[in-house]
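Lab notebook: predicted structure, single chain.

Context: the supervisor wants predicted structures on file for every construct in the current expression panel, including those that have not yet been purified. This is the next one on the list. No modifications to the sequence; it matches the entry in the shared construct table.
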Amino acid sequence: MDNILNLESISQYNTLKEVKTRHPLITSFDSSTAKPLDSGKYRFDFYAIFLKGVNCGELKYGRNNYDYDEGTMVFMGPGQVVGIKSAKDYNPRGFALLFDPEFIKGTNLALKINQFNFFSYELNEALHISEKEQLIVQDLYAKIDYELDQNIDKHSKTIIANNIELLLNYCERFYERQFITRENLNKGTLVNFEKLLNDYFRSESPQKHGLPSVSYFAAQLNLSPNYFGDLIKKETGKSAMDHIHLKMIDIAKARIFDAEKSISQIAYELGFKYPQHFNRMFKKNTGYTPNQYRAMN
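Prediction complete. Output recorded below exactly as produced.
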């Protein structure tokens, strides 16, 4: 098993990158002035936001490799493990911002940081931004960098946290644009999701494993659960779990017409351990209990 180096503090990371520690809980620097990390596996105990300029090495996260392209943004949350394979003789460009969760405690950003799902996207789901978008990101990096160069006062934390929040809000907008510009690719994902749903409920998987989860379908499509969920929501207006439930209800309606099957048997075939759970979900989605629906039809 490969050894994983735990990066537990900002200062430890700065030491590896040969970057000056200006604040114990946050760092920001121009990648061209920093030393590349050696090839290996690293676990981050803090948030990281990277804007990369040129192809500067290969990253591996989960089952996927990712080669940086110009104008690529990558986000990592605390606890993520990433494998790095550094390219030789390259001249890196771009910016890095890393901050400990302790830094944003007590700020508005701390209350909404978990809303930014892209911190748990896989690396092959990175954000690709235009030249104009890069200018916005670089401007916010510069503002944060400026604050770190000043003497720390009572305003520093709030100003920096506000700029990080603004940066993340812009990135959320950019991701929504990316979902739109990749509409054809996304439609392929929707078609495959529908096929997987049909295949799952036609098989014996519900009896063996119960109702499928969003994570199950995300894994089948080689996507992270959050990216998959966001893609489905933005394309259809419904969550991935809503789609799973609606598919299950459609199949249940058809099977309820078979009078030779009891409601309990149908519930079991659909992956419910307890029929009353099926009854509640069916009524929530149709307005009728399974027995009422059978009697009406």
